[in-house]
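chain below, 336 aa
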Amino acid sequence: MDWQTPLATSLFCFNKGLNKTGCEKITNKTLEWKSEYSSIVTMLGEGHDLAASEGVNSEGLVANALFNTDASYQSNFASFDKQLDVTRWVQYVLDTCKYVSEVVDKFADDSPLKIQLINKKMPTTDIDLLMHLAVSDIYGDSAIIEVCNGIFNVYHSDNFKVMTNKPEYETQILLNVSARYHWGHDNPMPSQMVPGGPQAVERLQRATYYLGKTEETYSAQESIAQTRAIIANTAVPIGFRLSSVNQDEIDETQWSSVSDHNNHTYYFYNSRTQDVCYCALNDVNFIDDVLTLDLIERKGQMYVQNMHAGLINHKFKAAEDPFKTLDDMVVEKIIA
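prediction:
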């Protein structure tokens, strides 16, 4: 997660069987669903102003949302059946899908249910939340989903393992094809020159290079360590500033993560601490259907980096579901 400042960040554990709504303000066009799987989800924001950033569910499906400045959500709802707030996109996918192929089917052109993503602001900011989505599953399948004028563009292949903020993914594919040629793919005189800069495309190619050059591991522990090393190689250090005033400023890497598809475990790495913590979804004790743990808290004008190391399952506390349906809200209000 790259941002110019720290962000309030928390982990949520959701049990299956929960009724969810796709928008804060519910109409007859609002998408609603019941979660089929439990999940661990990283939330950005605080209070009721939250956005699901990424997570893994109990079937090993992983979803990661990332800023995409080229995204555009169509405002005309005439050709769509249901609306889904972009802050809940990740949660909807994790709640309702087991495999990448199921996610692809939901957002394909011929899907029987036409979903429209609704724009919202990044929590606690005035910045539009323009996103694209990466999904992967226990079989190594993966897909990238982007939105242009309200239409979903789906790129589905187990070769699509790396994405960055911009440009659009079609161009990212072409950039990687060119880079792979120079690195030795069908090139009789390969070069091992790898971009070392902080720009999005440079980091895309750097991650692609190291991913393509690493050998397969034979243990979950080594695989996680390998993935973590590649991610760290693309991180932007805290306090990094470009010297040129004509270039876009590069955001710092606030935190990063690794998801273990097979063991349904989520690892969180805070750039501002020396701690690595992880949550094992299979072993979560759901004393309540929704649990949460604050990782980074905003207190006044300051951000507190909470210190968590190792397994954190025992640290979660009961919480309110930020995406629950209107019916659930009404029932709670009547009981109160």
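The first strand starts at residue 2 and ends at 3. The two ends are 38 Å apart (CA to CA).
thats it, cya
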